[in-house]
Each structure stands twice: as C-alpha cells, then as structure tokens.
Amino acid sequence: MQYLVIAYDHADAIDRRLESRDDHVKGAKELMASGKILSAAALIEEDKMVGSTLVVDFENDNEMDLWLDNEPYVKNNVWNMDEFQIVPIKVLPKS
Predict the structure, then answer these.
(1) CB-based contacts of 16: which residues, under 8 Å, 6+ apart?
(2) Does the pLDDT at position 58 exceed 90?
(3) N or C: which end of the chain has fewer CB within 10 A?
(4) At the fourth CATH level, which superfamily is domain 2-89?
C-alpha cells in the first residue's frame, strides 16, 4: 500500500537530527533503490528543517512497522511520533 508520511520533528531535535542524518539518508536511499520509498523531502519552515515527508509503498502494515522500528529518526527521538501522520494514497503511475 502507498502512504504519505508526514513527520514533524520535536522542537528540540535539531542536534539529534544532525547526528542521525547520515544513517537516515543511507537507509532512505536503500529503500528508494528497492522501490519502498518513492520520494522523500525535508519539511522547511523559516529556512529551518522541521520534519520530513515521504511517499512510501510497503506490502503491508508489518513492513511499514519494521521500517519505523529501524528508522534512525524514530529510534533517536527526532520525529515527534505524537504528531506523526500516515495517510493512505494512490500515486499516479508514470506511464
């Protein structure tokens, strides 16, 4: 299933974000190569990173849960999971 993920950071997360960024980007690139992440972007407000948005395509909820269990921004308390949003979507095919 395809989902839009909207993940705002905790207000005090900038240092944790920067510390976790390399692992986050590495994992995201691997998931992009396998087709699990279709797109990813940082959320910007007033020229500051305040969160992330992703379009993902996982086989099932268990696969999404496994990703989140291992996602560096979740493990290192960057994303505010109390405001975390997962919205089912259907991406327009490229062809």
Answers:
(1) 10, 76, 77, 78
(2) yes
(3) C
(4) Dimeric alpha+beta barrel (3.30.70.1060)
